[in-house]
Design a protein that fits this description.
The complex is a heterodimer. Chain A is mostly beta strands. Helix content of chain A is about 10%, strand content about 40%. In chain A, strand 24 (about 380-385) and strand 25 form a beta hairpin. In chain A, helix 1 (about 120-130) packs antiparallel against helix 3. Chain B is about 5% helix and about 50% strand. Chain B has one domain. In chain B, strand 5 and strand 6 form a beta hairpin. The radius of gyration of chain B is 12 Å and the shape is globular. The mean pLDDT of chain B is about 85. Chain B is mainly β. Chain B has one helix at about 50-55, and strands at about 1-5, 10-15, 20, 35-40, 60-65, 70-80, 85-90. Chain B starts with a strand and ends with a strand. The chains are: A mainly beta, B mainly beta. The interface between A and B is medium-sized, with 23 and 18 residues. Strand 13 (about 200-210) of chain A pairs antiparallel with strand 6 of chain B.
Chain lengths: ~425, ~90
């Protein structure tokens, strides 16, 4: 058996040139691995645009297919072996296209034994490691199960990336700290040791204003077919805003799918950023305190440092001197309150046909769809900056206008204003 | 004789022997002082809990010498230990 990949090695993604037959349009593209539910651009396999590779492995299913931004039912999922004997998932379109953008929302890779959709952070990390040749102990990454066992992610690995970066892309946006085989939430728990002046010779604690943030823009629900987040929310820590003013933090959660998870993770990260963080450096700590490990919570009670619970971020042990050197983090104040200020969805114009249009007797009918392809009722639509009307329950709006190129401006509370170039 | 005032609520004032050094580590060659480290004696930990509890970061601070203002800025960083270093940013 080949040696496992190093964490600094690239993921063993195949490229389209590894297939015996492929479309020249797709040269250079990696064959994607898909975890959880995610939307991506499939890889064209033929010249007529009938067959598209969705994932370089079996998948749980396809939730939705859009062609030119419009949902279609004319498709079939074929799970087959390619000519090299590797299982691939292929989308077969009833109406082939070479000119319109195809996007597929996929329920991705399954557990090799149980068949379960691999969507939690722990399941994704374990599978990445298995695919990279690692045999992990059963209890590895248990911290991810403990703290993020209910978090469903959707992520696509379709570009050259190292194993370390791939794991970091799953784990770090959650606000977790990790090292191979181990991860935990970056928050204090029950103290495992008391560090006072009798066991700590020297301690310094440093806090800087550069880490303080009081509001957050959270983006989540990434769409790999357009390389953009589809949803966002704005959070604020009002007490911190009152003291320090608005200091915005950008939190990108590309793999997070639901507003509930984005709110929980974004709130925890803003709550951490909205208070001073003491970075602790403890020298010559006696081994009498017992076994210390990274991620452990300790109670610090030393005259030269703030008193309270600290999380150890680095532990090094000098066995000859029977002493530890420790680094840790401690929050200066209690957890601040965090509120959601606003939720939004990005309106993403489809590549070739932004809105379905019909034209009859001098009247153009436009259908405005939201980011999920659902009709958007009540949106204010302005034609060429002159005429404004609201969409009906079917997302439709009509204007009497001559044929030709027009500009539609769509406004809807909670959405960014969108301008569409249309031809009727 | 230095006097450091940090305008938290209530304000914190350090003066006399408490201030052991006033540096200009970030002084540029033309005489501008973009930042100013101020060191307080903390051998017995007398300032630790006051400064830890006061959330001094980003608060306005003034350093005076015999009543004359020599530096005004905001607290950019604080290091607690056997001595306390407050980095003020102009």
């Amino acid at each position: 058996m080949a040696a496992p990949l190093l964490y600094t090695d690239n993921l063993p993604l195949r490229r389209v040139e590894d297939l015996p037959q492929y479309s020249a349009q797709a040269v250079g593209r990696a064959l994607p691995w898909v975890f959880g539910r995610a939307t991506l651009s499939p890889v064209p396999l033929d010249l007529v645009g009938a067959e598209w590779l969705v994932a370089d492995h079996p998948i749980s299913g396809i939730d939705r297919v859009t062609v030119g931004g419009l949902p279609t039912d004319g498709w079939q999922l074929v799970q087959q072996l390619d000519a090299t004997g590797s299982p691939i998932s292929v989308l077969r379109l009833a109406q082939p296209t070479t000119t319109q953008a195809v996007a597929v929302t996929v329920a991705g890779r399954r557990h090799p034994q149980t068949g379960e959709l691999l969507a939690t952070p722990a399941a994704i990390v374990r599978e990445l490691l298995r695919l990279s040749g690692h045999a992990e102990p059963r209890d590895a990454w248990a911290g991810l199960d403990e703290h993020y066992g209910q978090t469903a992610l959707g992520i696509v690995f379709g570009d050259e990336t190292t194993l370390r970066s791939a794991i970091a892309a799953v784990v770090e946006p959650l606000g977790a700290m990790w090292r191979p085989g181990w991860a935990t939430r970056r928050a204090p728990g029950q103290p495992s040791a008391i560090l006072d002046a009798s066991v700590v010779a020297s301690v310094t604690a440093r806090a800087e204003n550069t880490t303080l943030r009081t509001t957050a823009r959270v983006t989540y629900g990434y769409d790999w077919s357009v390389n953009g987040a589809r949803s966002s929310m704005n959070l604020a820590a009002p007490q911190a805003v009152a003291v320090w003013g608005e200091l915005p933090l950008q939190i990108d959660l590309p793999a997070v799918r639901t507003a509930r998870d984005a709110l929980a993770i974004g709130s925890a990260r803003l709550a951490a950023a909205a208070r001073p963080l003491w970075v602790l450096d403890l020298q010559d700590v006696s081994e009498r305190v017992g076994e210390l490990r990274e991620g452990m919570t300790v109670f610090l009670n030393h005259p030269h440092a703030p008193v309270g619970l600290a999380v150890l971020t680095s532990v090094s042990r000098d066995r000859e001197r029977t002493q530890y050197t420790l680094r840790g983090e401690m929050y200066a104040t209690a957890v601040p309150q965090v509120q959601m200020v606003r939720r939004g969805s990005a309106l993403l114009p489809a590549a070739s046909q932004p809105a379905p249009i019909t034209y009859r007797d001098g009247v153009a009918t436009f259908t405005i769809l939201d980011d999920l392809g659902q009709p958007m009722a009540g949106a204010a639509v302005t034609l060429d900056g002159l005429l404004t009307a609201n969409t009906n329950a079917s997302g439709q709006v009509q204007f009497r206008t001559p044929r030709g190129a027009h500009t539609l401006t769509v406004r809807m509370p909670g959405y960014a204003t969108l301008e569409l170039e249309v031809v009727v | 004789m230095f006097e450091l005032t940090i305008f938290t609520i209530p304000p914190l004032v350090f003066e006399g022997a408490a201030i052991t050094a006033v540096g200009a580590a970030g002084a540029s060659i033309n005489g501008e002082m973009p930042n100013m480290p101020i060191t307080l004696d903390n051998a017995r930990g007398e300032h630790t809990q006051v400064l830890a509890a006061a959330d001094v970061l980003r608060h306005r601070a003034e350093l005076r010498q015999r009543g004359v203002l020599i530096f005004a800025g905001a607290v950019q960083a604080i290091t607690l230990g056997a001595s306390v270093v407050l980095d003020l940013e102009a």
